[in-house]
Design goal:
This protein is mainly alpha-helical. It is built from 7 helices and no strands.
């Protein structure tokens, strides 16, 4: 494991800054599964996003939703959005929720 040469406490502490530095595991999952419709910045400014009028993920309406609600939408779908519960793990979905909340800082 990447932590084998460190004590567990040191490894956990040293892994926190990496997500701040841009190694967000939700980024690649978002790019592979969400960006086609939602755009890489979450704006929804894509041909598909515009055609089905999807919300800007950076908007207060989306950002104010609790993690559990966003996870539910990702898992089961909503409106034109398909469900991803059978193709993504719980960890992937949790990483996406964190990534979506991080998109507010990019607006």
């Amino acid at each position: 494991t990447p932590c084998s040469s460190h004590s567990r406490r040191r490894c956990v502490a040293s892994s926190a800054p990496s997500s701040v530095a841009g190694n967000d595991p939700g980024t690649s999952t978002f790019g592979a599964n969400c960006a086609t419709c939602h755009a890489s910045n979450g704006s929804g400014d894509t041909a598909v996003g515009k055609s089905i009028h999807i919300p800007d993920l950076r908007s207060p309406a989306v950002q104010s939703q609790p993690d559990a609600q966003l996870a539910e939408i990702i898992t089961h779908g909503k409106g034109a959005m398909p469900p991803f519960g059978s193709s993504l793990s719980k960890d992937d979905i949790d990483a996406l929720v964190k990534h979506i909340h991080g998109l507010a800082k990019t607006k």
